[in-house]
Amino acid sequence: MVWFNVVTLVVYLFSVCAVKAQSNEDFVQCLFSKFPNITTHLYNKTSSEFRPLYQSMQQNTRWLDDSAAPVFILTPFSESEIQAAVACSQSNGVKLRIKSGGHDYEGLSFRSSTSSPFVIIDMSQLRDVRVDVANEVAWVGAGATIGELYYAIAKESSVHGFPAGTAPSVGVGGQFSGGGFGWLVRKYGLAADNVLDARIVDASGRLLDRGKMGEDLFWAIRGAGGGSFGIITSWKIKLVQVPPIMTTFTKHKLLTENATALLDEWQTIAPKLPNNLVIRILARLQNKNGEKSVKISFNSLFQGAKSDLMSIMNEKFPSLGLMESDCFEMPWANTSLLYWGAKQGNEYPLEDILNRTDRLVGTYKGKSDFVRTPIPTSAFQGIWNLFTEESGLMIFEPFGGKMDEFSETDLPFPYRNGTLYNMQYLVHWQNNDQEQGQRSVEWINKMYKYMTPFVTSNPRGAYVNYRDLDLGMNQPQGKSNYDEAKVWGEKYFGNNFKKLCSLKHRVDPQDFFSYEQSIPPVSSESEQATVMTSKLPPIEAMRAPPTKWYSGWS
Ligand SMILES: Cc1cc2nc3c(=O)[nH]c(=O)nc-3n(C[C@H](O)[C@H](O)[C@H](O)COP(=O)(O)OP(=O)(O)OC[C@H]3O[C@@H](n4cnc5c(N)ncnc54)[C@H](O)[C@@H]3O)c2cc1C
Ligand SMILES: *[C@@H]1O[C@H](CO)[C@@H](O)[C@H](O)[C@H]1NC(C)=O
Ligand SMILES: *[C@@H]1O[C@H](CO)[C@@H](O)[C@H](O)[C@H]1NC(C)=O
Ligand SMILES: *[C@@H]1O[C@H](CO)[C@@H](O)[C@H](O)[C@H]1NC(C)=O
Ligand SMILES: *[C@@H]1O[C@H](CO)[C@@H](O)[C@H](O)[C@H]1NC(C)=O
Ligand SMILES: *[C@@H]1O[C@H](CO)[C@@H](O)[C@H](O)[C@H]1NC(C)=O
Ligand SMILES: *[C@@H]1O[C@H](CO)[C@@H](O)[C@H](O)[C@H]1NC(C)=O
């Protein structure tokens, strides 16, 4: 029944919604004509729910600016409402922003730097998770959070997990679109590597699954960052096996405790450890009784028991001096609590990972780099000097392991084989303190500049999920320009950028899905002929649902 409706709806949309209308009101009328009761899912500024919805899940309070708010927020309850929204905004010149978890560092899921009116498609109602343990797969609605996904898996099995990020409140819609990595990355790769299928509403309002969208588009939506190719409604993922017990430790070292030498050693050890062990680094300023020092935290998760971890550490990294008393065992689900600094797996109730408001909401700026050759020991002193100026944070996440089994072009995420680690710079400040904000931003820029010689270059790498508009952006409203866009595009996607641009030209030549860092449509010379002559495939009935137990979102 659902499937039949989708087909009729799409056909209907294209016959009726072709009527040209001009205003936001016409957009509402257009939607209303498809769904007489859509008003219950559509909010304007007079609605008391508008503001809470607009601000919900904004993890970076830097962008809490009502003047940048949309004209409407739509919270679709079905894929067909999304199809209608695309069709109606196409015919009325209204722009769309897509918001799943709202954790974009630059707020691009809910704000726009242009003055054009826009509508937020808020995916929060499409967040069912359907776990099929027997077949080791799950379908997850794009509006679900990482925590909701992890919780749903853990409810069904104590020996399955999924290799996505560490923070529970992040949305799967945005995160899987840009790659996604966390505690299981060295064993299982990116979240995007473990996506088996997806459902997307494209610029023509068609609902496509993997078979319908084709392998090129399916490649692009797993790493190119969210929102360039369409609206993902759900992902089908491959569950991975985890042992019933995991072990965590955090070992803090001050500079006076030989931290620099240990960090230096870590650079070559961490990416080569057994795949079931991740040791990441958090470096920050410690200000104890007015005495400033840099604190390096070795923060780890091992997929196994404490005793096995101890023998690996004694063999591979004895200088860290890990003791059994530093280690805590817990099931995989509880490891989500570590994100908030929990030492053990029972410091918060597990249900807290379902909380869509993050405990660590704050005002911040982030940047990222990738490292392929160890940073020279002599360079660390300069980093520590900078740390004494502002309270910044650096996070080093080791790759290697499974990540080395992928080439640069397997997915749009290019930092694979031979990449030692990802590095993230963060700086937080009080929301209302403009001066502090300016100093913080200047500080992170200084740090970023200082690091230039020590990180990947030509192009310098960056992770699209740690969105950074300093790298460059598309012209507002203007025609996209490949040479301008490649300045930031190649940082995120390396040699995949060109392919992404020509693919974009094929599937969204009018650049309907455009924003500050969307992939611009560029027809490559060789492709021009095919682009001009080949029409998009006709609208036809969707295939039957991919598996028996999945019956579509209705
Ligand atoms: C506190 C915190 C912790 C993080 N930890 C990790 C981590 O451990 N590992 C990691 O890899 N990353 C991590 N990230 C980065 C995170 O993966 C990205 O910010 C991600 O894009 C957020 O996804 P979202 O759905 O919450 O964001 P949103 O702000 O909703 O979306 C991000 C982008 O994707 C687009 N988009 C959203 N939903 C869809 C959709 N359904 N279809 C198409 N486009 C869509 C948006 O328009 C926007 O451009 C973290 C971020 C934060 C703030
Ligand atoms: C719309 O209204 C009809 C009739 O009242 C109802 O059956 C249906 O469930 C409503 N749909 C939604 C999405 O609220
Ligand atoms: C806002 O929504 C309310 C309730 O749906 C409606 O009555 C009102 O006309 C809308 N206002 C505008 C300016 O669109
Ligand atoms: C500091 O650490 C390095 C590398 O782990 C080690 O070789 C050295 O002996 C340590 N020095 C001290 C004083 O602990
Ligand atoms: C894991 O979480 C559950 C549910 O909150 C809790 O009861 C249990 O004590 C935790 N286990 C460990 C080992 O921390
Ligand atoms: C969710 O977390 C926020 C921030 O820590 C807190 O204020 C709120 O009470 C929590 N909500 C629930 C339902 O636990
Ligand atoms: C990874 O790099 C190594 C060394 O350059 C090379 O031998 C290997 O074939 C590469 N593997 C993949 C999957 O690209």
UniProtKB/TrEMBL annotation:
Keyword Glycoprotein: yes
Gene3D superfamilies in alphabetical order: 3.30.465.10, 3.40.462.20, Uridine Diphospho-n-acetylenolpyruvylglucosamine Reductase, domain 2
Any one GO molecular-function label of the UniProt entry: FAD binding
Domain FAD-binding PCMH-type: 64-242
Signal peptide (from-to): 1-21
Keywords: FAD, Flavoprotein, Glycoprotein, Oxidoreductase, Signal
Cofactor: FAD
InterPro entries in the record: BBE, FAD-bd_PCMH, FAD-bd_PCMH-like_sf, FAD-bd_PCMH_sub1, FAD-bd_PCMH_sub2, Oxid_FAD_bind_N, Oxy_OxRdtase_FAD_BS
Any matching Pfam family: BBE
Source species, domain of life: Eukaryota
Keyword Magnesium: no
Family per similarity comment: Belongs to the oxygen-dependent FAD-linked oxidoreductase family.
Name assigned to this protein: FAD-binding PCMH-type domain-containing protein
Organism encoding this protein: Daucus carota subsp. sativus (Carrot)
Organismal lineage: Eukaryota, Viridiplantae, Streptophyta, Embryophyta, Tracheophyta
